[in-house]
Amino acid sequence: MNSPAELPLEGIRVLDLSRFVSGPFCAVQLADLGAQVIKVESPGTGDGTRRWGEKTTGPDNPYFISVNRGKKSIALDFKDPDDRAVLDKLLADAHVVVHNLKPSSAESLALDFEAVRKLNSNVVYCDINGFGRDSSRPAFDFIVQAASGMMSVNGVPEGEPLKLPFPLIDVATSLYATIGILSGLLQRSSNPLRGAVQVSASMFDVGLAIMPNLVSQALMTGQEPKRLGNVHPTIAPYEPYEASDGWIAIGVATEPRWQSWCGAIERPELANDPRFASNPDRLANRRELWMLLNPIMSRRSVQEWLDICNRLEIPASRVASIPEALSVSSLVSTVEHPSFPSGVPLYGSPIQLQGRPLGVGQRPPRFAEHSGEVKEGLWNSFTANEPAE
Known about the structure:
- The protein is built from 15 helices and 13 strands.
- By secondary structure, it is an alpha/beta fold.
- The strands form four sheets. Strands 3-2-1-4-5-6 form a six-stranded parallel beta sheet, sandwiched between helices. The chain has a three-stranded antiparallel beta sheet with strand order 7-8-9, covered by helices on one side.
- Helix 7 (168-190) crosses helix 8.
């Protein structure tokens, strides 16, 4: 794990006014990079993700923990005069403000860009919204998966549209917002007189942006992309197959690899079969190709096929469970947490700096855990050094 002095956002002050996933996970990226992050939660209930999951998990549940590490938590009522005074002081001294309030709610609470800029003329202000700054339509990841067309292309051809089992749009929007914030900080450092920078990220826009090949297909051909299940829209073979003891995913993306693959499965004649000689041919006859390959794949174990693929430099992997994948990851660390006597395991940032992983930093906060010290010392409750202005 890098020491704080080696992290690029050391001393940058981030006020996280967001909840659920898209905003909090953005603030996590900044915390991982060394920023000081104060998370503001609603009195009594806190962030909504603290209540997601079974009753037995409590407020410090896996969902909340996954998107809130590295922060301090304070509870403030934005409509209470005393709490609002604390909030305004935090806003005035923050380098970055992040929220995912509906635009109408931000304006009614005097947390829109113009209101915050009056308090802090050099702030990098980031609002994350569902359908754009001009829309107050409420949004969750699932809703935007439906609205962006993502669900229409996920699933098997004859089945129903399916949502992804994880909040891809929330996470991707967080990352786009992080890019925008870092760009704003860079602008501020290169031109301190530039003033406040407004960054905005729309979940709907991001939902389309992270499907570049399908969006390009629809724009250039006018055709509606269809659900294809596990197959690739433009490459074959490129899907999972059932071996004798499990599932293996194989991607044969080039003609030399296809020829090698035909030799490996002891069917060299398929390399020049007019039905499969080129990738367009294989796409046109995908079903026939699957009918030929599937019985062959069932004759060997996953490991045997992996050995063959590795020798031929054909990309392949066992279809692993998440626990299996975690067991070989180097990014899992256990940190102390008052709710977990044995500590809480966290998955850290995949970013490496100078060849070293960022690690997981500080643990996620308990609800309003730092209200007293933050109100008393505001940003001075952090021990990190102040960055050069």
